[in-house]
Description:
6-stranded mixed beta sheet
Amino acid sequence: MERFLAQLCGTDAARPLPLWEGGSTGHCFTQLVLSALPHALLAVLSACHLGTPRSPDRAVPCSPGWRLRLSASFLLSIFPLLDLLPVALPPGAGPGPLWLEVLAGCVAAVAWVTHSLALWGLARSPHGRFRGPLALALAAFLPTPALVLTLLWHCQRDTFLPPLLPGPLARLCLVIVQLAAVLAYALGWAAPGRSRERWTEEPFLSSEGQESEVAEDGESWLSRFSYAWLAPLLTRGARGELRQPRDTCRLPRRLHPAHLARAFQAHWQEGARLWRALYGAFGRCYLALGLLKLVGTMLAFSGPLLLSLLVGFLEEGREPLSHGLLYALGLASGAVLSAVLQNQYGYEVRKVTLQARGAVLSTLYRKTLQLGPRRPPVGEALNRLGTDSERLLNFASSFHEAWGLPLQLAITLYLLYRQVGLAFVSGLLLALLLVPVNKVIATRIMASNQEMLQHKDARVKLMTELLSGIRVIKFFGWEQALGAQVEARRAGELGRLRVIKYLDAACVYLWAALPVVISIVIFITYVLLGHQLTATKVFTALALVHMLILPLNNFPWVINSLLEAKVSLDRIQDFLDLPNHNPQTYYSSDPPTDPSIVLELNEALFSWEPMGTSQKTFISHLEVKKGMLVGIVGKVGCGKSSLLAAITGELHRLHGQVAVWGLSEGFGLATQEPWVQFATIRDNILFGKAFDGQLYTEVLEACALTDDLSILPAGDQTEVGEKGVTLSGGQRARIALARAVYQEKALYLLDDPLAAVDADVARHLLHRCILGVLGHTTRLLCTHRIEYLERADVVLLMEAGRLVRAGPPSEILPLVQAAPKDWAEDGQEPHSAKAQSVQNPEKTEGLEVEQSTSGRLRLDESKKAGAVAWHVYRAYWRAVGRSMALAILFSLLLMQATRNAADWWLSYWVSQLQAARNGSQEVPAPARPGSTGLLSAQLLLFSPGSLYTPVFPLPKAAPNGSSDIRFYLTVYATIAGVNSICTLLRAVLFAAGTLHAAATLHRRLLHRVLLAPVTFFDCTPMGRVLNRFSSDVACADDSLPFILNILLANTAGLLGLLAVLGYGLPWLLLLLPPLSLVYHRVQRRYRASSRELRRLGSLTLSPLYTHLADTLAGLPVIRSAGATCRFEEENQRLLELNQRCQFASYATMQWLDIRLQLMGAAVVSAIAGIALVQHHQGLANPGLVGLSLSYALSLTGLLSGLVSSFTQTETMLVSVERLEEYSCDLPQEPQGQPLQQDIGWLTQGRVEFQDVVLVYRPGLPNALDGVTFCVHPGEKLGIVGRTGSGKSSLFLVLFRLMEPSAGQVLLDGVDTRQLQLAELRSRLAIIPQEPFLFSGTVRENLDPRGLHEDRALWQALEQCHLGEAIACMGEWWGPALSRGTGRGRPPAAPALCLAGGLDGELGEGGRSLSLGQRQLLCLARALLTEAKILCIDEATASVDQKTDQLLQQTIRKRFANKTVLTIAHRLNTILNSDRVLVLQAGRVMELDSPAALRSRPHSLFQKLLQSSQQGAHSAGRC
Length: 1518
């Protein structure tokens, strides 16, 4: 090396690179160090921006500043080449040798050419709007000192004075011109670019069509390595402009969901194993990353080896300078290369993870669209989408570690053997003894994890059902009862989590205490073998033991992650293996033989279960011709809805044939429970079909929606709540019907669309829609209102799941008890009712939440901005518990203090041994200044050859008494024992504290959500709330404690390191302030973006959950309408937004990582370079230099870990922030005050409304407008009125689900606002219009509080005509007779019905029962209550009229002495009431007995009766 430099520079080999000569800097030093190196740096930085994407605004020319910089850069690329001409031409123009000038000139020319190209690209990119990257501009000025020094050299040599030589004079002129060009470049940079305000005002990513920033694609390899392409994103993050997902950069092509779906589908087929498909699509690329991992692992050991060689070079002083340069360059190159490779490995693994995530989530959703009748509950499906998919993808980061860690272990063991010989075996055996212990712990963790996931599934499933039926729950006052059930499932989940956390604590303790224990064992063995301890041996062995612990410590967690991934893979595979809905095999391949037949069923047997264990539906033969109206009637639970489900393919076909003409066109389906999306009314009706104004208007009129839309805030642009909760039942039914009609299908399946509307609207729907707009189509209509079937072509009679009769209405309808025919006794003409039907536009009472005039109901999910607020840290501190948190911190400090004390005692022991030996050492080495003391040069260093010199038997050293060794070992073991106790205490306390925090956060969240008003749930998608209860709670349970543990360990380690460093070498602390400033700037820039990206990631995850839940709820409608492709595209769009945020978050994390690692490498390299310069000048202190190198290396690594763990902790705290947002900021229902009088205040049942006004929002019409009436104790009051007249609003005010704007409601003379909500609702009973059942047994649904005995439950079921159906639920199993009659079966129930009864499972939402049976079960709840006031909201709309009459008799008998308020659309149900209240537009129009109101010739009640009669009889008129 010296000879090469001497030849290149023309100097002496003893001083090849003189720093100072002839009164100025050496010319060779100037050209190589001050010119070539800065130019090389400029070239590298410029190359990073060569692939900068162009701006879409290409027509705008460059600003004058950019043009000046481009011109100057272009000239500066030519001048160095021109400067070579005087040098090359004889006689030469000096001042240096030819090849030195050629090297410097060529490097400069290449640098400025690269810089010119980079400027050309930047000027046309978004950077062109201002000055561009500051680092690039500063790098352009770095070569300037070399030009100035060259100019000074010419001045000293008087080049411009006679005699003038052409060569030197030409070179002088070129130097001056280059300086002028640099000045011009500086002026161009100082000149402002285009208007910066324009840049900030115009959103960078305003729309899809204007997005120009694509991640990675088009970037140079240097830009990819340095992540320079992230600069615009990080700039937006620093400015606080990351407000929405579109503010992030677009995904590269290989990560786009559409591309991933195509790549994955090429390897996926139904029934395949998921892991095989993932391997086929992404496995080869992933396995290739193992090469990066292998090289990175090898390079990790280069640092200690090169450090040892460099320190040996400094200490010996006998090697040539070139060796020192090679060691320093190797150290720097190894650190940089290792940093780049490890960073790229992590980045590429994360990209593969995102690829697999996109493929898995797309496949899960596609499977959801293809599911057959056997579908998982929504909560379980959401867990597959969230928790299981994330755990499965942890495999990507764990697989390569599974072989990389054993490789590190093997290499470390070999080096340890070369250091201490066979003494290392004792420590290794101790470590290996813990492997079986660790295996037992890992097995227990895996088993507990599986159980915890089951409890989590149950909790999320119950929470999903609870949120779905929150209105009914609040009506019944079951918040505490069902909240207790959620807490019970949470307690089971926390029980398993507690086992996992304490097992984790045991692992942390074992592996944290292991280094000290292994060190003691190794050193004792080493001494007993007859060797003497030295500082080199001790601290080299300690360093290697720490390197040994890393793979041993991480390996169990890697195995645990792999096992968790296997569990989640199996769960996802089970979901993917569910049977599909396959129209090709379900329907007959041949259409009906007769072209006039649309539908044909032959010997068809269907069941909800694939094995036919549930109730079956059998159709021996059915033919439906084109254009027919087919009515389907029968008792509750007879199989009417099952027949329609069988036609749509939602049941299992056990045998027989189903043939449908025009199957590819789909069906028009209106389900019994209307499915409405959280969207505008127009979007719900269009359902993805193009807007046709004429058809749209016709459909609105036919479905009686015109009057409703006319009074909504934004007409048909008004948003409705999730599942249509902000609409009345009739409005939901009509919107669902309008959606089916607008699709213009040939075959319509209508499942009781008339049940939820009053008689007038039902007659309108029959004539204008079913017989009008749909008159030319084929229609199958299920209904209990048989008066509307007189014009049907065929009527089907179902009984017990079988088609028993089919024929004309005149033949079939008499078999079913019809409605009374004598309602219109006064002989009013039908036309009066018809005229009334178009008067007084209906008021929409269902829209109970505030809507703006734009019609927006859904509120955008709030997203905090800036740093995580301090109140979030305080909230988690309080959740852990103040005393517990202080105890954790104290034990952590004690653990670190005792660890440092153990190291200090060991160094003290070694120094005493060295003093006692009087210079007799195992490996002789000359003494150096600073090599002794508390922290000698070898404390954390490797002496020359120490890693590769084997241990040989040595002669006895100086006397060293066994008592001394025993004393030192005893003290060392004592300190180590105290450290072990502190470590155990800290691990246990941390596990207990984080468990307490997890329980507290969930409990507070659940309590607050259950107390939120119904308006919150109306305007908040369920997926948004479930995201808190699943992903955010999971983060607070597991992810946050894991990262927080690492952060606390890094913080304590940094404090201990600084304390030892400050005590041993205080001057090194001077490096901390500038280093801290650099670190602070980098991490602040990163954190500003990382926080927002984490929030955006959570923000974009909620719509994915909501979309999946919505799809599962409306799957029959989606498939019938042929909208599966559109829903899949919507899922792809939502997934892309989430993937963008996830990818940006991963990329910024790697951006931080590479910079922190390169900073550490730069610091080490700088110290090494300074050491070589000092050594060359004879001023080096090898001990201090070596110590500086070792501590600088460890300090920067620790700071890197600290910043990373702190940033990750902050991003994880976003979940706590979101939980706290709901726990603290959700609005609460006014709870009222405890009643001061006796507990039995409601003894009579008197209800009084006094001038009650209810308005949902200022500016909207009053839902109730001065309502005043009184209901006497024991009175039966019927409440009637057209849809939207305010009937249900009375119940909302009575139960205080909505607070009245004015007036008051009195119960037995007590104002309801003075009562506690729980007390009020516990004294009232309601039978809601929509039945609410949750997963669980019949007993739990009837009596959630467990207040009644089984006999009372069976009595209520018998009175509701459900006894037989409930008794025979479940499987029939003859051999079970030996088990006895058992609890839960009625006394008269058959003994074969053991699996059913009160312990029979109802399934999610009570799907084991028909809708009518669910309503009857809700009626049975009311029969169990002892409330004095009963409210019935059209509770029998979905039962047949015969059952309805029996139920009315039961209600009259059981509630004879109680006050009953009944809302009815079928007026015959309230004709026996004491009085009837008629509402219109929120006002009381009439209040009298039914007979009195019918006797008035123009009463509204009489007109409603005539409308009902009109609907019953006009169907028979042509």
